[in-house]
Design a protein that fits this description.
Blueprint lengths: L8 H8 L10 H10 L1 E5 L4 E3 L7 E7 L1 E6 L2 E7 L3 E2 L13 E4 L3 E7 H8 L3 H23 L1
Antiparallel strand pairs: 1-8, 2-7, 3-6, 3-8, 4-5, 4-7
Helix pairs in contact: 1-2
Amino acid sequence: MPESVSFPKTELAKQLGKISILGALSQSQLRQLANWAEVVAFDKGETVVKRGDHGDGVYLILEGAAEVRRGNRKIARLGEGQIFGEMSLFDEEPRSADVVTVAPSRLAVLQKWEFWGFAAGQPGVVLNILAEMSRRLRAADEALAE
């Protein structure tokens, strides 16, 4: 993983509030979550997640964009306010796809144990992640049917 970058916790809390799955959290909850998160920077074209690797955390896109890929096939494009790697929060399986930045990006990273430490008292966050996973599964099913 690349080095952490300096990112003021108050600004991080504000940015986390723009992430779709976290939008319903209070300012106090967002500040608490910001204390658990690490911010990392990637240049354009860097692989953040590699298919087959062990996953132990979720990534939240604060700035920039990324593509989800399997081999040469583009599965999705993700931008600011979106997440990836969320399946690793629920199982011990390897990563299912590569994620490559398509622009310089800053990402907040929450390790599995940090996420569950926070989410234990925030059932709405878990439900929002499950809803996002369901949307992505439906989109993948539709793409495969074409």
